[in-house]
Amino acid sequence: MESLFLTRVLDALRSGGDEVLFVQDGVETGYGQALDLVRRMYAGLPERGVVAIDAGNRPETVLLQIAAQLRGSTVLLVAASASSPDRLAAVEAAGVTTLVTEQPSDWPAGDARVITLDELRNRDGTDPARLPESVTVIFPTGGTTGAPKLIRHRGIYDGMAHIFAPDPAGPGRTLLIAPMTHMTGNAAVLGAILRRESVVLLRGFDAGAVLDAIAEHRITTLSLTPARLAEVLDHPAMTSSDVSSVRQLSLGAAPLPPRRLARALEVFGPVVGQGYGLTEAPMIASISAAELGGRPERLESVGRIVPGMEARIDDGEVLVRGLSMMVGYHGSPPIGDGWLRTGDLGRFDDEGYLYLLDRANDVIITGEHGTKVYSTVVENALARHPLIRSVAVFGVPGDGGEGERVHAVVVASGALSVEEVRAQAREFFGREHFVPSDVDFADALPLTAIGKVDKRALREPFWAGHRRHIA
Hints:
The chain is an alpha/beta fold. 30% of the residues lie in helices and 25% in strands. The chain is globular and about 70 Å long.
């Protein structure tokens, strides 16, 4: 049986003709042109093997993925956020046979054949003789909490072929901000193709550019991380920008402070939803704007578990299994029907809504009784202050490396003192161990390439010289 995913993708590319698929820097690429590019790149790739893709947001990146999958190859998407050592380690661990890149000088000589995207797009095209039965894609994890693992996905792509269909309201326009080589961006661009819609590509994130693109291209669908949504909401042009075309604004990657979600609903209207997933299991829970109406307490929830997935709490940690699960970690046995430990701490309410408290390794053990302080809870409390635009909270070693202190890095929109920040926490919690011992101010929080706050980078200087990152 031929892959349903590849069958539907090819059907969309063939039937789209002159309809616009991609828009980037004022240049349009039609569906027919995209199909021609797939045929050209297909001709330059070997049968099977493992193809690594190291490229930014441009049409050729996802079209190369499709071409490699048509060849029956496993595809490794090199994470935009990965360090040089991690990139090299991922390519070696995955057993890559062909590496396609925009920057061949970034890759030392090795066992893999290294070619450029431009070399492939200049080939004479040819059609696939037959379609493989399935596709396999390897994603490295984000690496914000440790060395990336390699995650194998297969069934989720046929799942996309079942889920994504043309919108009865008419063809939409997706604004792609996340890297195509990350699960969020990859699913967004492939979903748009399966819906036979247009994709406006941004090479990187800029809040002003996002607002300009929404207004100029009448964007209907986009996805943002909490940190990026904050920048959009705080941008001076927000109040004068026309965002009325947006039908769906998806938020994910981390729980959103309730104040920010409420503001997003106010600005964009009842089109804002929040999702929860991991690279290992991209679709776990979701909540729509309709579920938030008149229920302000749900602003802190990531939603209910989606059909086909299950979740439970074990010793405070969220465990999941179901249809959107990965095959397994590369080099390890398939996970099958087993439970996956998410590394996230959470709770369910009586109606089945999931509330995330923290990453398991973001728990700070502090105070004279060794109290557990969840950093996300402190962040949400501090974010209620009208002058705090964004904040990251994490544990740092106490005096002499013994015990942990609560540390906050704050981005403020006006004059704000350390004591005012601490008073905000003290007033909200009424307990001193939640109050940051130290507060730093910054112009912006560091983000990974996929838009998450990079707590690893923030923590690192404080833990330098320590054998472990707990005390």
